């Protein structure tokens, strides 16, 4: 006669997923984007100071370029870096299916639910492979914001060559304001992003190594 333990069904655990949280191409393009954004923002502040349209200027100590001509050179160099790297990032995201898998589905109700949970400190970060709805919205927003930065930047750079785009953006002077506001939105995103990294530091190790890192 067999004992009950001898005939009990055996529960098999699913195999551990040893794939990196972020593939190499994500980590490389992420850090190149970070460098390009830093150069663009700080050189852009120097360019803005040469002809401000708001009643304030950016402290020169946190700008890049030293003078208007130098800032423009830095800005153009960073622009090409961001545009080329951004195209690679978008192309690989779409080709791999990651864009739709990571950032969709998305709805206002899900964003609101996760935002309220985050404010109450109840939003889980246990699965680094999964983006919550607030993260999905933020990353999609910054992608669109960078596209707006590039389009408005084209108007400021080659206004005569892009007359239709210039008119769609309300003319040259209004495009300057759009460019500045889009830059401010990008800076706000970076500030929130850095705050989240400080609260969940293992996300930094994940983006450096591709592995999950220590639990927060």
UniProtKB/TrEMBL annotation:
GO cellular component: plasma membrane
Keywords: Cell membrane, Electron transport, Heme, Iron, Membrane, Metal-binding, Transmembrane, Transmembrane helix, Transport
GO BP terms in the entry: respiratory electron transport chain
Subcellular location(s) of the protein: Cell membrane
GO molecular function list: electron transfer activity; heme binding; iron ion binding
Ranges that cross the membrane: 28-48, 68-92, 137-157, 177-200
Cited Gene3D superfamilies: Transmembrane di-heme cytochromes, Chain C (1.20.950.20)
Classification via Pfam families: Ni_hydr_CYTB
InterPro entries to which the protein is assigned, alphabetical: Cyt_b561_bac/Ni-Hgenase (IPR011577), Di-haem_cyt_TM (IPR016174), Hydrogenase_cytochrome (IPR051542), Ni-dep_Hydgase_cyt-B (IPR000516)
Start and end residues of each Cytochrome b561 bacterial/Ni-hydrogenase domain: 22-210
Record membrane topology: Multi-pass membrane protein
Domain of life: Bacteria
Major place of residence: membrane
Membership in a protein family: Belongs to the HupC/HyaC/HydC family.
Protein name from the UniProt record: Thiosulfate reductase cytochrome b subunit
Annotated source species: Acidovorax soli
